[in-house]
């Protein structure tokens, strides 16, 4: 499977997905917040504040991942909380390190989603984790520290 990334609404990327345009727009505008940080990830915008984290964890990439609202279907808070506990437990068992976060829609059309930024998770591994947790997409940051949307459907 090829990684499809959105940069300023790439028409080809949108044509290759089953996801509706309003959902893609929501992903594009989301602020991918990180706990205890005064900065956030935004698709297509380099985030140099990642550099010290990359250095500290000796990595060249990271993936922003959630288990909330599988396939874009809103779940009650208690079910999303349970899914995130399970995701964190699975990440811990697999030996991953992460920083907690929450994706926020600045327009307020979508509730915030508890998330994690996983250090060193390559795009191919991120796709597998996202699919395992029934997500439409994950956000991957490579060595350039530019968050990109990786579509899974």
List keywords for this structure.
alpha+beta, single chain, globular, 22% strand, 7-stranded antiparallel sheet, 153 residues, 5 helices, disordered N terminus
Please write out the topology:
Elements: H1 11-15, H2 21-29, E1 31-34, E2 40-41, H3 51-57, E3 62-65, H4 77-93, E4 98-104, E5 113-119, H5 123-132, E6 137-141, E7 147-151
Antiparallel strand pairs: 1-2, 1-4, 3-5, 3-6, 4-5, 6-7
- What is the number of domains? 1
The strand order across the widest sheet is 2-1-4-5-3-6-7
Largest sheet: 7 strands, antiparallel
The 3D shape can be described as globular
The overall strand count is 7
Structure explained in plain terms:
The chain has 153 residues and is an alpha+beta fold. The chain has one domain (11-151). The protein is built from five helices and seven strands; from the N terminus they run ααββαβαββαββ. Strands 2-1-4-5-3-6-7 form a seven-stranded antiparallel beta sheet. β6 and β7 (147-151) form a beta hairpin. Mean pLDDT is 90; it is low at 1-15.
């Amino acid at each position: 499977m090829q990684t499809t990334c959105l940069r300023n609404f790439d028409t080809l990327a949108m044509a290759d997905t089953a996801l509706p345009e309003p959902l893609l727009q929501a992903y594009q505008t989301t602020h991918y917040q990180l706990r205890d940080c005064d900065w956030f990830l935004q698709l297509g915008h380099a985030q140099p504040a990642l550099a010290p984290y990359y250095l500290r964890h000796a990595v060249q990439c990271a993936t922003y991942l959630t288990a909330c609202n599988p396939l874009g279907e809103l779940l009650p808070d208690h079910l999303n909380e349970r899914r995130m506990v399970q995701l964190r437990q699975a990440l811990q068992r697999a030996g991953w390190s992460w920083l907690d976060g929450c994706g926020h829609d600045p327009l307020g059309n979508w509730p915030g989603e508890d998330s994690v930024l996983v250090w060193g998770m390559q795009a191919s591994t991120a796709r597998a984790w996202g699919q395992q947790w029934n997500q439409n997409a994950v956000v991957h940051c490579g060595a350039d520290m530019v968050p990109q949307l990786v579509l899974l459907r």
